Amino acid sequence: MKDERKYYIDGSHFSIQYMYQTGYSKMARPHSHSTYELFYIFHGSKYFFINDTVYLGQKGDLIFIQPNDIHRTSSSDELECERMLMNVSNEFIGLELSRFQASFAQFTRSLFRFRVDEQPLIEEVIEKMYRESRERRIGYEACVRSALTELFVQMKRVDVEESNRHAHSDHPLQQKVTEVASYIRKHYEHTLTLDEVAKAVYISPAYLSRSFKRLTGFTFKDYVQAVRIREAKRLLRETSMPIGRVAELVGFSYTANFNVTFKKITGVTPLAYRKQKRE
Questions:
Q1: To which CATH superfamily is domain 174-278 assigned?
Q2: Which end of the chain, N or C, is surrounded by fewer C-beta atoms within 10 Å?
Q3: pLDDT at residue 236 greater than cutoff 70
Q4: What are the HTH araC/xylS-type domain coordinates in residue numbering (predicted)?
Q5: What percent of the chain has pLDDT over 70?
């Protein structure tokens, strides 16, 4: 019998959680993680918006999210999704994968679609990680690492065998929404309006607003801000430039507005974020 409690191993280096949702739902706000995030879907479906691409995850799919990738989920038309969520750090699995010169960082795809005949094995491996994490019997950490290594191998096989496959759902809006998100990510440092972007991709502003929110869970304004703050976080981590200059480079006209938006999205001020990352 599964519960929806999140189980941790080695602090925050590994966690696993079973989730079952019905009805319409979406993430309260866009976010990213310092770990790899993996969703395996047992039943139903869900939209995943990762960076500038929309994916429809369905039964037998594994959604893979790299550290620091902006993402958000929202319900599909099915309004039901049963899935397992795993977060994994390099420190947790790095040694096992290094034995054959591999790492999760090698993956460039976000959707791994397992064949029907492969799904029972994948589900057995994931169920083992969940069971071992919950029961915590002697040697459970080693069992989880072993199962996670096997899952990696299965993902690698899909990656190699289907390297030329561009796996998306057939939703008619998906390509257009991905085009909009890509445009925003390429021009985030400029002033962006809904009317301007709609004109650039040849759709009406009202249609863009509705479609973007439906498939990504973001409003147009929220996504623009999320992209800008993601780039700001990178500049704060990797450079020593003044906060005002960072704000300017990511598209904010006023530093005060940047500070408020940054704290709203991250929970801390830009200065506090920089200090945290340098400690």
A1: Homeodomain-like (1.10.10.60)
A2: N
A3: yes
A4: 178-276
A5: 94
